[in-house]
Amino acid sequence: MTTAVPRARRLLPRWREYGRPRELVVRYLLLLLVLGLTVGPLLWQLLASLKSTGEDVFGADATLLPRHPTLRAYREVFEQVPVATYIRNSLTVVVLSITSQLVFSTTAGYMLSKPGWKGRRAVWVVLVASMMFPFESIMVSLFLSIRDLGLVDNLAGVWLPGFVGAINVLLMRGAFLAVPREIEDSAMLDGAGEWQRFRYLYLPSAWGAIMVVVINTFISAWDDFLWPLIVLRSENHMTLTLGLSRLQSSSFGYDQRVVMAGSVISVIPVLVLFVITQRWFYKGVSAGAVKL
What pLDDT does 98 receive? Predict the structure, then answer.
């Protein structure tokens, strides 16, 4: 008993670092609430897609857990629509988007992080200001430009408006600004040129920010629905998100379970990518913070 009291006193400052017990309870309750709001809909879609035909998805008689789990809805998704074609088209847009975003955001961010050239501040202000305008405000002009280029019903027309994003340029700029100037000066004294410093010094230092660009680009290109809906016409060119939306039409005998299964299929690649790259993502968010 005598040894337990001093030990408790030694542990008390550690508890104070995290807050009082009542505050800890409130924090964890808020975290559980946020977790339920974010993961709850996806979990409900997954459980609903596993229900059999005789089970209700909505209504008073609907249950959360399926009584007789089945993969029938997933089989019908692949039978009703060409999922493989949709996935191939989405992957094409994703690969093009990630490639262009990495090339232009890293090079532009590197140039914006270098002092001494005229107009650098003005370019930075323009990039920040461009983020204030929603996509819907320039959607019509973008479509007219894509139409004049003859890229309607073409995957290049889906990719071209998002070949580089201002937020990614600013993210890479912030990551490159975190590289100490003394290291670059040492590389210059060793005879390293501009390209060598960019490739062997700056890019490895900004690996976390690069992964953030990759993840953000993948999610935005994979989940994009509005712009492909405007540009694409034929089924052979549809992306996965746009193609799976056809499951809600009456021509396929609208089945809520099949629609839920299509939604789960479309979100699986995003979850897999995030699980694989999450540690680099969190490091990159803090390392690539926008600096003035």
Answer: 94
Please say if the pLDDT value at position 1 is more than 80.
no
pLDDT band at 41 (very low <50, low <70, confident <90, very high): confident
pTM (two decimals): 0.79
Token look-up 């410093």 returns 197
Structure tokens at 203: 């890019």
HEC-encoded secondary structure of the chain: CCCHHHHHHHHHHHHHHHCCHHHHHHHHHHHHHHHHHHHHHHHHHHHHHCCCCCCCCCCCCCCCCCCCCCCHHHHHHHHHCCHHHHHHHHHHHHHHHHHHHHHHHHHHHHHHCCCCCCCHHHHHHHHHHHCCCCHHHHHHHHHHHHHHCCCCCCHHHHHHHHCCCHHHHHHHHHHHHCCCHHHHHHHHHCCCCHHHHHHHHHHHHCHHHHHHHHHHHHHHHHHCCHHHHHHCCCHHHCCHHHHHHHHHCHHHCCCHHHHHHHHHHHHHHHHHHHHHHHHHHHHHHHHCCCCC
* CA triple 203-205-207, angle to 5 deg: 70
Q: Encode pLDDT of 59-108 as tens digits.
A: 767 777 788 888 888 888 888 889 899 999 999 999 999 999 999 999 99
Helices 166-177 and 120-130, packing angle to 10 deg = 130
